[in-house]
């Protein structure tokens, strides 16, 4: 089982204001900020990781923050929606909460036999809260978002593409997913390697314009592997298909590979090891700014360039 893709690891999106982003995900959605660091390629900007208590794979939503960046446009060639699993019976709570916090949302709906509530974050990033079945993961609790309502982690991610087969072949032939259901132009793929964060939906939209990556859009989707050895096994498999894939990259909290699948979506493979407690204890996750080693000597300048987070 371990030499397989283990569902979703994390999803990374773009935000236009760090304080607004931090407040929404911690105070409205009730996620834990498990790591406060910077963009490896742009250390003058934050990189936040939100998730459950430990930042378990399959719960991690991360953001690159570029202050004042223009709003992006969802479209073909990108991940267009993130699904979170929530406890059965909790959608009324979330509907009321979204009304109270003026969160843009829609009416309750149903897809593949499951109730869901669609909403958008302040940048326009699109989500569904889905009443999960047999999801025993423990969500992060706050004074207002308790165990009977807290998000448990990812349920699914939706990819929108012009040509279904190009992306489906990657999921099935390389990643071990199986096509299981279809509603209209939405096709559902599931891996049985894990119990949760195991679903990828693909919407085929041949005439849809391509998306524009900026605030309120997803930057990439990361799939989970157990460790470095499995990571490099998959590197060989992906390269053998003629796809351009990066060398192994150390992201401090996991090791990664990146490649674009044939419809243009940026995919990452990320390891479980070493995890978010490598540089701070579980009880202190997300409380202090952590810098990659190559930037530690610039800490003072970096701290002065970053927005001050308000409580």
Which features does this protein show?
311 residues, alpha+beta, 2,3-Dihydroxybiphenyl 1,2-Dioxygenase, domain 1, 8-stranded mixed beta sheet, 5 helices, globular
Description of the structure:
Helices cover 17% and strands 35% of the residues. With 311 residues, the protein is of the alpha+beta class. It has a single domain, classed as 2,3-Dihydroxybiphenyl 1,2-Dioxygenase, domain 1, CATH 3.10.180.10. The strands form two sheets. An eight-stranded mixed beta sheet has the order 2-3-4-1-13-16-15-14. It has an eight-stranded mixed beta sheet with strand order 6-7-8-5-9-12-11-10, with helices on one face.
Strand content: 35-45%
Number of helices: 5
How would you spell out the order of helices and strands?
EHEEEEHEEEEHEEEEHEEEH
What is the third-level CATH name, the topology?
2,3-Dihydroxybiphenyl 1,2-Dioxygenase, domain 1
In total, the number of domains comes to 1
Secondary structure category: alpha+beta
Strand order of the largest sheet: 2-3-4-1-13-16-15-14
- Quick one: CATH superfamily? 2,3-Dihydroxybiphenyl 1,2-Dioxygenase, domain 1
- Rough shape? globular
- What's the level 1 CATH class? Alpha Beta
